[in-house]
Amino acid sequence: MNKQPDHDSQMLLLVAGVKGAIGTTLAAAAAAMQTAPERVLPYLTTAEKFNALGPVTSVAVAGWDKSQQRVTDALARHGVLPDDFWKGHASRLNALTVMDAPLPTGTVGDQVDQLQADIARCRDRFPNARCVLVNLLPAACDLADPASFASMDALLNEPAGALLPDVAYVAAAVESGIPVVNFTPNTVELPAIVERALANGVPVAGRDGKTGQTYFKVVLASALKARGLYVDGWYSLNILGNADGLNLMDPGNACGKLNNKTRLLDDILGYPVGQRYGRSTHKVTIDYYPPRGDAKEAWDVIDVKGVFGMPMSLRLNLQGRDSILAAPMALDLARWTAALQAAGINGPVADLGFFFKKPVGDDAPVTFEDQLAALHRLGARIEARLREEAHAANDKIAAHHSNTPAKGRA
User: Fold this and answer.
1) What span, in angstroms and rounded, lies between the C-alpha atoms of 177 and 138?
2) If residue 255 lies in a helix (H) or strand (E), which one and from where to where?
3) Is-contact 260 358, C-beta < 8 A?
4) Residue 353 burial by Cβ neighbours in a 10 Å radius (0-12, 13-18, 19+)
5) What is the pTM of this model?
6) DSSP readout, 65-120?
């Protein structure tokens, strides 16, 4: 990494999987904000938040990937954005710092050492930036019992291939004092990592970004519960044709995401959907359908019962764009976690449950209204702490000046 230092960027997103569909869309959004912020800022929920962190547009992207393609070639391959949306930023995009993903050899500790060295070099290049790790690696099922690693030493001594690759990235970030956004359904919040995050003052946000169908499922389920309607069954079908869709065709990779999509409904409603049938009637299916590319589509059939047990039903059809929905959320979450760290709030942050299918942390809010309320309270708490710290810093400066003799005075 022999690039000139960047003293302007005030936030640096370190993205695991930066050349994936979401990662390249995120990079394109960060690049566009430098010259055409009106294309991105209206779609960020943090555009007017946490001014103490500096301008929202003052953000840079770096990261890791297995692919040797240029970033622009990866953008073209994924086909998320029309060429004219990003070609004007091609030189900026291809100048991104992209590092080699660690190989699955040696121990997890060897991988963490490589990643920490990469992080240190990125900090040298972006000396004024607050760093945040954004995990966008592919979905997979856990390879080991998450609770079996009680200490960081035990975790680091594990063979690299025995754990999900995400674990090394998250461990490296936590050891480096960098906030973590786990946008994937993969379990990386292991006990040893959570303990170290608390000790190092690192916020951890996750897990499994709630972008499309599940977002509306939470809204609708919360509304049905509030209205006193009984959900008798809920059938959800998703089709998408991007790399994420292909990856999820492997049942071994899809189990975590499917579990996250199904369990939250029972949590919201307060009863198992399908209990009167003796089996779950909440069905979720994900199918890979190449013609759609990143333009996913979702259908929901919702069977409910009203007074006297009379049946009714709803139909919902979402025609969305996977990475277009996800990339702004990743930007927002990076800003939230940077603000949390600045405010001295660390460890798993359950009050960010609005953004996730499976929120980490204790007593995470479940219904839509509770998630929104928790998010607003968290934002107010952060802003209050940042104001207190700013006032304390100003008082310290004023006290220093008052105790400094003026030059030229007898």
Assistant:
1) 24
2) helix 251-269
3) yes
4) buried
5) 0.92
6) ES--S-HHHHHHHHT-S-HHHHGGGHHHHHTSEEEEPPPS-SBHHHHHHHHHHHHH
Q: What is the CA radius of gyration of the chain?
A: 23
As a whole number, the mean pLDDT across the chain is 92
- What CA–CA distances, in Å, run from 136 to 22, 61, 205? 7, 13, 13
Crossing angle for the helix pair 165-175 and 191-200, to the nearest 10 degrees: 20
The DSSP call for residue 3 is P
162: helix, strand or coil: helix
Answer with the residue of higher pLDDT: 148 or 94.
94
- Please give the Cα distance from 272 to 291 (Å, whole number): 36
CATH fourth-level superfamily of 11-209+324-383: NAD(P)-binding Rossmann-like Domain (3.40.50.720)
Positive/negative CA dihedral, 153, 154, 158, 162: negative
- Rounded CA separation 387/384 (Å): 5
pLDDT digits (tens, 9 = 90+) for 348-373: 999 999 999 999 999 999 999 999 99
Can you name the residues that pair with 287 across neighbouring β-strands? Answer: 239
Give the start-to-end residue ranges of the domains of the chain. Answer: 11-209+324-383, 213-319
Amino acid present at 222: S
* CB within 8 Å of 320: residues ≥ 6 apart: 211, 212, 213, 295, 296, 297, 298
The CATH number assigned to the domain with range 213-319 reads: 3.30.360.10
